[in-house]
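Whiteboard transcription, Tuesday session. T.W. wrote the structure tokens on the left side:
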């Protein structure tokens, strides 16, 4: 009978011992993947600081012919009136600061608020339909500690007050000067029908979305409750209400006064109040045109309005180009630099 021998177990290496490579075997080092490196927040902010300047360059190149013609008209203008136009343009940022402060209960830092309005003006001319200014101010209020829901409500209150102020001034001037604008020769008789039809279609779509989509209806209801609560809180403080409505009336009045000053500087044969009325009518007409800062649409509407007010087409075009140079193109580069500085300083 054959007896099988039990094999002895192989010796195990001691715990913690380092294994040695067998003789004749070459060790191969496997390539190790590099860890993913995230872009630091500081570098992201530095890149964001350059974005406004890049956008300004692109917009300026696209409208270089308009810039050249506008600066050409400024050489032949009366400088005292141009200085007045520049002064009213600077005061518009102060009026916007008052309106922004009046739309929120919390006290905002004054210097940062004014700098933010100057930067928001540049952002407003780089993005369509006022999205730039709204985004800058929304971020500023959030950094100042105002919750996002209340910041959005304050932004909506500001837009509503500014629209009401502009329409109120337009209505008052139309009542005072009913024959200032002669639109009969400029607008065809059939223009009112398609316009009203388009507005009705937009309103019907909006109502249909609110009725049919529950999430949208819930979100809109929640936002309206927050906005009404914020509006009551603001109007409970007389200083905030005065800043809100005083600024909303002063802002478009200063803009219209700036155009009237440029008209006087270039010898436009239209009374200043009629120029102001033409400006308010034109800006209300292009409020829904989705172009960056109204570039292109505002110029066309202003020329049409000034011609409707009785000004020659050539002089009206020169006045509009000079006015847009003062109010848009000259502040654009310093505004973009201010916007980049505010981003870097974490103000927005």
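and on the right, the sequence the group agreed on:
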């Amino acid at each position: 009978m054959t007896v099988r021998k039990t094999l002895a177990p192989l010796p195990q290496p001691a715990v913690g011992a380092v294994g040695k490579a067998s003789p004749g075997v070459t060790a191969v080092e496997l390539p190790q993947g590099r860890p993913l490196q995230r872009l630091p927040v500081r570098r992201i902010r530095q890149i964001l600081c350059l974005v406004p300047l890049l956008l300004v360059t692109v917009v300026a190149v696209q409208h270089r012919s308009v810039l050249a013609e506008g600066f050409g008209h400024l050489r032949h203008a009366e400088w005292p009136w141009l200085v007045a136009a520049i002064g009213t343009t600077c005061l518009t940022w102060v009026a916007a600061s008052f309106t922004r402060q009046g739309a929120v209960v919390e006290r905002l830092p004054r210097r940062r608020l004014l700098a933010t309005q100057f930067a928001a003006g540049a952002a407003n001319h780089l993005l369509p339909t006022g999205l730039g200014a709204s985004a800058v101010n929304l971020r500023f209020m959030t950094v100042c500690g105002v919750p996002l829901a209340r910041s959005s409500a304050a932004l909506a209150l500001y837009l509503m007050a500014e629209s009401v102020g502009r329409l109120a001034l337009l209505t008052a001037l139309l009542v005072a000067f009913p024959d200032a604008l002669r639109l009969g020769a400029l607008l065809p008789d059939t223009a009112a029908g398609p316009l009203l039809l388009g507005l009705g279609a937009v309103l019907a779509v909006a109502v249909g979305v609110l009725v049919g989509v529950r999430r949208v209806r819930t979100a809109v209801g929640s936002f309206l409750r927050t906005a009404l609560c914020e509006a009551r809180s603001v109007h409970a403080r007389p200083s905030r209400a005065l800043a809100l409505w005083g600024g909303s009336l002063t802002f478009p009045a200063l803009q219209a006064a700036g155009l009237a000053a440029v008209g006087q500087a270039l010898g436009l044969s239209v009374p200043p109040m009629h120029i102001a009325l033409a400006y308010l009518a034109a800006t209300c007409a292009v409020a829904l045109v989705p172009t960056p800062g109204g570039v292109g649409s505002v110029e066309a509407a202003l020329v049409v309005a000034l011609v409707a007010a009785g000004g020659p087409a050539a002089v009206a075009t020169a006045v509009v180009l000079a006015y847009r140079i003062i109010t848009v193109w000259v502040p654009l580069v310093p505004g973009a630099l201010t916007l980049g500085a505010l981003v870097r300083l974490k103000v927005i």
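Someone added at the bottom: The two ends are 94 Å apart (CA to CA).
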